[in-house]
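Moderator note: this is an archived Q&A kept for reference. The question asked for a predicted structure of one protein chain; the sequence and the answer are reproduced below.
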Amino acid sequence: MLRLKDIKPTEAEITKEIRAYLDIRGIPHFKKLQGLGSPKGISDIIGCLQIGRIGRFLAIEVKKEGQELTENQFLWQERFRQAGAICIVAHSVEDVEKELGNA
């Protein structure tokens, strides 16, 4: 028998929840669509988090439960993290809340 706890949200549903949370927090962002001209591995959600008078680049890679970053996604986030960006791998909106609570 299928139970509610067995139903896992899709990546699109997780993305929608995260974007709604960012809207509530007033964090400007957009959903990056992969396509011609997109760098390999670019994160799903790109934004800017204001800390005091400074803006910090924000990159969120959304994954379903049990999924991990591809090599290109890992390298992309690592390059930006080393440059001072806040990079998050989110399996839920709670992951984003936790990470941004520390920023």
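Archived answer notes: DSSP finds three helices and four strands in the chain.
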